[in-house]
Design a protein that fits this description.
Blueprint: H1 18-28, H2 33-44, E1 49-52, H3 57-69, E2 74-78, H4 85-98, E3 103-105, H5 111-118, H6 122-125, H7 127-143, E4 148-150, E5 167-170, E6 175-178, H8 186-195
Helix pairs in contact: 2-3, 3-8
Length: 247
């Protein structure tokens, strides 16, 4: 993939300036997602950028693109110990295909320790606290080692993500955030998966467009929002990893 147009840069203090980042995001929004990843690697250096992977269908596309940009790019996943078996299976298939070790990031507490401290099945009684303990706090810890992270969030996924930019300043975690697929629709993502023969989570073939922890995820009924199966029966719509950044 060749680059034939202006390549925006961030240098010095500019890379942490939200206004400059907003300008760069506008310049990059029409670039192919793989080129946005390449931009991040060139701006920050491969050792200071990391891809967050949940093994959903967007993320497996980013794994493929990131591997093509630089096989040395770190890729991590948050292992809550509550994932579907199918999620671990696609992790293993991707690891075999790309000969890549995914960095496992785990919570401080085991499920048993969490139950002892907060009571059993915390996800039913206080899903926000459960997500904080098993996702948000581990993410904070791993992101301290980097200056930028890459995610698979898209504008189409939910109203809370409708204003996502391809490059943002992540106020919550204090680093640059790249969302290369922000402007892609689901059809584009699936076309890429099939064209490049990328392994994906088989739950997607069973009405699970968005896959999280097993106790908090159900199949989506026809006509429902793609994320309607997450935390069903509660008013919770995000786990806390992708709260609104400064744009």
């Amino acid at each position: 993939m060749t680059r034939e147009r202006y390549w925006p840069t961030l240098s010095g203090e500019e890379r942490w300036n939200p206004e400059q980042i907003k300008i760069v995001a506008e310049e990059l929004k029409d670039f192919h997602p793989q080129e946005i990843i390449r931009w991040g690697v060139e701006q920050l250096g491969v050792s200071r950028l990391v891809l967050a992977c949940s093994f959903g269908y967007e993320d497996v596309v980013l794994v493929d693109m990131a591997f093509k940009v630089d096989p040395e790019l770190d890729i991590f996943y948050l292992d809550t110990d509550l994932h579907f078996q199918e999620t671990y299976e696609v992790r293993d298939r991707l690891a075999e295909k790309y000969q890549k070790e995914f960095i496992r990031v785990s919570p401080e507490l085991t499920l048993e320790e969490q139950a002892e401290k907060y009571g059993g099945e915390l996800w039913k009684r206080n899903p926000d606290l459960c997500c904080k303990l098993r996702k948000v706090e581990p993410l904070k810890k791993v992101l301290k080692n980097y200056q930028g992270w890459i995610t698979g969030i898209r504008r189409e996924q939910a109203p809370t993500r409708a204003h996502t930019q391809v490059v943002e300043w992540d106020q919550g975690f204090g680093l640059l955030k790249l969302n290369p697929l922000a402007f892609w629709n689901a059809k584009q993502v699936w076309t890429y998966i099939h064209d490049h023969q990328i392994p994906y989570n088989s739950l997607h073939d069973r009405q699970y467009p968005s896959i999280g922890c097993q106790p908090c995820t159900r199949p989506v009924r026809p006509g429902e929002d793609p994320r309607a199966g997450r935390w069903s029966g509660t008013d919770k719509i995000e786990c806390g990893l992708h709260n609104s950044p400064v744009n």
